[in-house]
Structures are given as C-alpha cells and as structure tokens.
Specification:
CATH class: Mainly Alpha
Helix content: over 70%
Radius of gyration: 16 Å
Shape: globular
Length: about 170
C-alpha cells in the first residue's frame, strides 16, 4: 500500500514539475498541456472512480498551491473529472486501444471548460467566450496527442504498484 501511495505522489509531482517547466515552453497554438488532467483521467480509467477522485483532488490542490491560483478550483475540477471518468469507464466495454486517447481528449476539454466556468463565476477569469472555447478544445487535443506516449507508462506503473491479493487458509 505504501508503494502505491509513493508511486501516485511521484507521478503527481513529476506531472506538476513537467507542466510548469518543460511543457510551459512547448505550446500548441498558444496552449500548454494539462498533464494533471491526463494523469487524473488515466488513473480513473485504470483504477475506477474512487481512486480517480482522490488523485484528482491531490493533484488539483498541489497545482493550486504551486501556481498561486485561487485555492480549490482545480481540486474541484479534477475531483469531479476523475470520479466522472472512472464511472464512465465502467460502462464502456470497447476494447479499442484508442479509447484512452478519446477519453483523455474529451475529458480534458470538458474539464478545462468547467474550470473556466468556475473561474468566471468566482471573478477570476475575464477572457472572451471564443478564447475560452479555443483553449478548451486545444487543451483536449494536446492531451489526446500526449496520451499514446504517457498511457503505457502510467498503466505499467499503476499495475506494478497494485497490491496483490493474499489468500489464507
């Protein structure tokens, strides 16, 4: 169990560091990727809604404190996103290898849009609607592009840290 907690914390910290340093410089049409959205959705796909919500909350709070943004907006967004994607994955029975890519792309776009709506309601976001839609769609596309690269790595890490069942007689 401790190995699993350490691996999840390591993934969240690594995603935060990469997002705020390396990927802050690599932009797709002016938009940077949201690696914590990708990590939250992948965990929710692999482990279910409860684990997706926990990782989303931890990653969201870490991002809120690191980036000095209003506390809780990202945590709320990622918690709801992780839970929703975990629930959705339980009802999708397609064995398609493109499924994680589609889920990450759609989930990131919807999650980013939800974040922007919450920020507008709290008076923290003052960009035009067209710009907000463009950012949401491009962020979703960026997440979908990164998924085939990062999904196998995260799947291997989480499957390796999953506790084994012990049967005692």
């Amino acid at each position: 169990m401790m190995r699993r907690i350490v691996s999840i914390a390591g993934v969240i910290i690594t995603a935060l560091l990469l997002q705020s340093t390396v990927f802050a410089q690599i932009k797709l049409l002016g938009v940077k990727p949201e690696l914590l959205y990708l990590v939250t959705i992948v965990v929710a796909i692999l482990e279910g809604p409860q684990e997706g919500a926990i990782v989303g909350f931890a990653g969201g709070m870490a991002q809120d404190f690191l980036l000095n943004s209003p506390k809780g907006i990202t945590a709320l967004t990622l918690t709801l996103l992780g839970y929703t994607m975990g629930l959705a994955r339980q009802y999708i029975v397609s064995p398609s290898p493109l499924l994680p890519t589609m889920l990450v792309g759609a989930g990131t776009a919807v999650g980013t849009a939800f974040y922007q709506v919450m920020a507008v309601l709290l008076g923290q976001y003052e960009e035009p609607l067209g710009y907000a839609i463009k950012v949401s769609l491009l962020t979703g596309l960026y997440g979908a592009i990164l998924t085939p690269i990062l999904y196998p790595l995260l799947r291997r890490l989480f499957e390796g840290s999953r506790p084994t069942r012990v049967v005692r007689y």
